[in-house]
Amino acid sequence: MRRFNLRKCTGILVLTLFFGSAAMAQQEEEEASLRKQIEELKKGQDEIKKELADIKKLLQASAARGAAPAAPDVRNLVLDVGSNPFRGEATAKLTLVEFTDYQ
After folding, report:
1. Angle of CA points 81, 84, 90, to nearest 5°
2. How far is Cα 25 from Cα 1, in angstroms, rounded to an integer?
3. What is the pLDDT of residues 19-70, one digit of tens each?
4. Of 53, 90, 92, 98, which has the fewest CB atoms closer than 10 Å, so is most exposed?
5. What is d(CA 48, CA 51) in angstroms, rounded to the nearest whole number?
6. Residue 3: pLDDT above 60?
7. Are 97 and 79 in contact (CB under 8 A)?
8. pLDDT at 95 over 80
9. DSSP label at 88?
């Protein structure tokens, strides 16, 4: 009976050591993989931060030059619609022009 218990204990000890070391090796590989992924993420974040800083500089530079070119003054613009069909009086103060392409 004693030999059986001794063999049992020895077997359990061997299995524990064998699988324990294999599990620890796998855990170390997973940790190394995670560290590598974290470093890649950090590099990606740094690149995004750099691009955002570049965009911010461009926006600030365009704001310093003047926001946008001024739109042309169309308050007294006269359009000649020629012989095209229209509705309303020719002397109206406001004309709406619609261009459509039915293709």
Report:
1. 55
2. 36
3. 666 666 677 888 888 999 999 999 999 999 999 999 999 888 887 777 666 7
4. 98
5. 5
6. no
7. yes
8. no
9. S
